[in-house]
């Protein structure tokens, strides 16, 4: 379980092309203050696309 003082938080990554939320991952609140962008595989588009952090 996540504690109140944890430095890492759960985030959801959404595909920029189909807008579906495909991935859940962790990030550091201290080191990564901006929203994360990653190149990940989208199974609906069947190709690698940019995925951005959603809130």
Give the arrangement of secondary structure elements.
Layout: E1 8-15, E2 21-28, E3 37-42, E4 47-54
Antiparallel strand pairs: 1-2, 1-4, 3-4
Short description:
The protein has strands spanning 8-15, 21-28, 37-42, 47-54.
Task: Name its key features.
0% helix; Rubrerythrin, domain 2; 4-stranded antiparallel β-sheet; mainly beta
Structure description:
- This protein is an all-beta fold.
- The chain has a single domain, classed as Single Sheet (Rubrerythrin, domain 2).
- The protein contains no helices and 4 strands.
- Strands 2-1-4-3 form a 4-stranded antiparallel beta sheet, with no helix packed on it.
- The mean pLDDT is 90.
- CATH level 1 name: Mainly Beta
Summed over residues and divided by their number, the pLDDT gives a mean of 90
Q: Which architecture name does CATH use?
A: Single Sheet
Q: State the end-to-end distance.
A: 20 Å
Shape: elongated
Question: Using DSSP, what is the number of strands?
Answer: 4
Q: In percent, how helical is the residue content? A: under 10%
**DSSP strand content:** over 45%
Strand order, biggest sheet? 2-1-4-3
CATH superfamily: Ribosomal protein L33
CATH T-level topology:
Rubrerythrin, domain 2
**Element order: H for helix, E for strand:** EEEE
- The tally of structural domains comes to 1
Q: What class, by secondary structure content?
A: mainly beta
- The poorly predicted ranges are none
Largest sheet, described in full?
A: 4 strands, antiparallel
């Amino acid at each position: 379980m996540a504690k109140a003082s944890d430095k890492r938080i759960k985030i959801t990554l959404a595909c920029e092309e189909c807008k579906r939320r495909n991935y859940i991952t962790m990030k550091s609140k201290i080191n990564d203050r901006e929203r994360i962008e990653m190149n990940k595989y989208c199974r609906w588009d069947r190709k690698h696309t940019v995925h951005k952090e959603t809130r």
